[in-house]
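dumping this here before i forget
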Amino acid sequence: MQPIEQTITEITALLREQGSQDYYGEPVSQLEHMLQCALLAERAGSDNETIIAAFLHDIGHLLPAESATEHMDGYGRIDHEGLGGAWLRERGFSEKIVALVENHVNAKRYLTFKSPAYYDMLSEASRKTLEFQGGRMTAEEAHTFEHNHQFVGILQVRRWDEQAKVPGLKTPNAGHYIQKCERHLKKRTL
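structure:
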């Protein structure tokens, strides 16, 4: 595990360098989306791990790619959830945070399987990325997913992810959530 200060510097740099980019077909930037998702988690009274997961759920989109084949036709990184989860795990974030990040795409696949109405409410960009992400789950995949010990939290992060696309919404700044990340990492080293 690397020093906490280095992790915080990396997150800050990713947000500074990539955060102003459009959020793939949506009317907000990457950073606005992340901040709105975290704000929704905060407003729901979630614990700090869930708030951090909501904030960092798309960190995989911000990580440097080695080639264009790693992208979904202009809709972000393929397997951004897995890349983001692995990146967070390597830096000492809790398994709860990692599970919420790694599974937010599975939640979309699950919800589109369980509820045709959920698919109907997805934005065009979210429908397009679903094609790259494996489409709707099968009944067997859904059954397995329902037994994930973070199942309820994963679905909640997914719902916030869908809602966090409001142009001009006032949110706390990134520093507010970065401080939560730093406190979380320090607490884990005690």
